[in-house]
Amino acid sequence: MEERNITTTTAATESQAITTNAGTQEAAISDERIPGKLIGAIVAVGSLAFIGILTETVMTVLFPQLMREFNVDTATVQWITTIYLLVVAATMPLSSYLNRRFKHRTLFLAAVALAVLGSLIMIVGHAFPVILIARVIQGMGSGVATPLMINIILEQSPKSKVGRLMGVGSLVITVAPAIGPTVGGAVSSILPWRAIFVIVIPIILLVSLPVGLKCVEQHRPTEEARLNSLQFVSIVLALCGLVMFLNQAGVAVSAAVSGGSATVSAVFAVVSLIVGLGALLFFGWSSKRSFSPLIRLGWLRDPMVLLHLIAYMLLPIVGIGFGYVITNVAQLSLGTSAFLSGALVLPGALIGAFFAPVGGMLYDRFGPVRPILGAFFAAICGPILLLVFSMRLTPVTLAGFYFIFGFGYSLGFSNIMTNALRNIAPQFMPDGNAVFNTCLQFGGAAGTALFSTILSVAQAGAGEEGGDTFRHATAVGGSWTFATMIGIVAIAICCLIAAFRIGAKRNSRL
Asked: pTM of this prediction?
């Protein structure tokens, strides 16, 4: 009996000790502090990514000025953004190789050099081909900086703080394109457009560079990774082909509806699609058989991660495309100025700046399901309200309903990538980061092409810009666009629900 009491007492003591240790460990995890140098590194690299994305969307508002200055038409001037998106999308897949092969500081310095060189050429360039070369260089800088920021966060963040720091990273990705139209409208009204790049260079050299040199650190060893040139060429062809397909398909549809010749654009679109899909299939096939693939894709066999990736590609179609839709509906349907139309996007952008890290904090505290699904059920209310009131919108309601979308989108978007990358092996995180960022860029390009085509179809045959018939047609096109947005967000939500159900079944088996 005494032996049994001693055993019981010992067991109780051990159980209490285990509970105490578990509590101590949990408290230690929750008290993990974010290193100051990590914050500095995120600021330094993130500011480069922010500037790159900002200048991309600023340029779209400046198209009328650029057309007059360089004496080019609408189809030609769009190459300023199209070629930038192509280069960024083509550089993103290299990020996995670059992260394994080179140190973070080396990549950071390369991104700084490319950003400064591209900006200098934009300032002094007075021929349209020179401007395109500058955009290519800037696109390479952004293609290096954005994945580098995410890799630093994933590799160096305390585990209990990953969500909120990924939220900070998402702030760069989502806020910059949202405020771009506002900045572009303000600059075009008071300063020459080149002033944007005059302002950018001191920020890079006096803020980003010194902070990065002090704070960017290397926490993992580099590898003797090899660049698979054939796979790189194939993924570049795939991305260029698909983006060109979206661009030329939109041009062909618009021309056909307006009664013009669409043959050349349609043929170019079909050829681009065939080349893009063929190169993409070759890339996937060769990656499976390569000893050292450019991007390791084995982790995509997990259906839960794949569903996250689909949602992550679909949502930027709406999130980034919204900037184009708001500014065009405001100017062409409601008759606002370029500056005011850009300013309408600002409230939604500011709410994104504040709530992106908050969404990450909710993820760290409550897990993925409620913060992500709750955020996008809130976000879908924005385009629903825009659709309901599409034929009687005012600048205030347009900005207000976009604000609702921006609130939900900023809360949940970065958590999708965070949760997906948490479910793959750590050694494959650079590969996952490369794929997710590439899909983000592709989704943004697809959104602009899709929504511009829908508006163009609605406006075809509606008379001159500024007339009542044209304004009504733009409002109708806006309603079609908002309906399309609802469908895209709904599909993304369904993908996420399916992914979470798979995760719940796995957890129940453990």
From this structure: 0.76
